[in-house]
Request: fold
Amino acid sequence: MNNIDIEKIREDFPILSKKINGNPLIYLDNAATSQKPSSVIEGIKYFYENINANPIRSIHSLAEEATKAYNDAREKVAAFINAEPEEIVFVRNATEAINLVSFAFPFKEGDRISSTYMEHHSNLLPWLRLKEKGINVDIAPISDIYELDLDYYKQLPKNTRLVAVTHASNVTGTINDVKEITRFSHDQGALVLIDAAQSIPHIPFDVKDIGADFVAFSGHKMLAPFGIGVLYIKKDIAENLKPFLTGGEMIKDVSLSKVIYENAPNLFEAGTQNVEGAYGLGLAVDYLNKISMKSIEKYENELTNYLYERAKELKKVDVYSGKSKRFGGIFSFNVAGLHSHDTAYLLDKKGIAIRSGFHCAQPLIEDRLKLDGAARASIYFYNTKEEIDTFIYELNNIADKYGRR
Amino acid sequence: MEDDKFYELVELYRNPEHFGKLTKYNYSEKGYSPSCGDKFSVYLDVENGIVKDASFEGKGCVISTVSLSKLCSFLIGKPLKEIEKMELKDIENLLGIGDISISRVKCATVGLDAVRKVYKEVKDS
Reply:
């Protein structure tokens, strides 16, 4: 694992030297949110001490600096996923991005949307809500190794207008072949929305290569502050969409009898935006680029393989992730006979932070996996083999003491 | 919470008292703790304002399961009105722990909330 200077990287993340319950923090809840490097934390302070003003609106010098910072952030994010700046809409998070599409997309009664069984609620509930308007939602099934059946996308139900699919599952870790899904869906005249909240922080993402029409992701899972996220909208799609929120700076001309709206992305950014967040996201992208997404992917793959290799030693632990042909650094499990919350509680006493519960994917966990919750460890590039060793050691102790078949 | 105390609660969790649907009951309510995934039903047999019998079923963590079990034990034979003045502190006392963390409050109070709903129903009728 020498493609990454892990010691140097860990020094960039102040929180990683924190102690939790008397033990060094082992942060394995990265699929929930990532930690932030000093460059982002200090960058926010720098923004308020040097750049702060309301961008786009005011014309004084400071506002121009703020506008430039905001635009620069948009350009950085665009380049990061190989998009054009005008295709990047800043939102709060992936959830808001997907909700935006559910309001802006010109659905008609009788249209169909295709979601899947492995979605986070954020890529399911906005669509289910459209049922009230006479729009039908189909749920693509998943196989016993938690993969989508690509053949499903070769023969979508008639009138399918939009295919919504996650790039990487936050529970099973499955990485879907979104390029193929997009190709098949386009062949049948459906547009494609990809929930990339769990993939863009971890693997190189080229939106032009994938060809998707909408991509949603959150900044806070990729080193940026909370409250900033991204919706990518393909250039030629945007003009057919309706506005989402209306208000300041999303118009060209307003009278009481007629409103002429701005073009994307401004059309979808009503009101003063989270400028500090966008600036922070730009710095987060700088940091990821410095290490390179290719190196991050390689390192995380090695770490994930190491974790699954070590997990073979575990007895009285059931594992639900990592069964698909391609998967990311997600490890979902239960100690036999113990609720995931209690497992999380016991690991926390040793300083190990993991997630437990439904992971906002209740249909998957409850209906498909037939569980009342799962514990989940999720890695990022600042995690180490030594941390994995400690995690496996402590998990084994818990399983020994509390596990019951 | 000390390890021994937690172990003791896990033992109670594996074979909880008052688990299963009552054959005779006149009130039932559901309780949820969504982040945790807890889903319970509470069954109460109430006569002249007195809880004759109480039980629960469903799935959840150690904290929610044991607090529901202990709450049933506590309520049986008492006026349902007792629930009106009960709060988190009382559940902690029933569990014998004093340090429920913020993230577990919903687990601890899932039964309390359900029985409160029953009490409201009884009061309103």
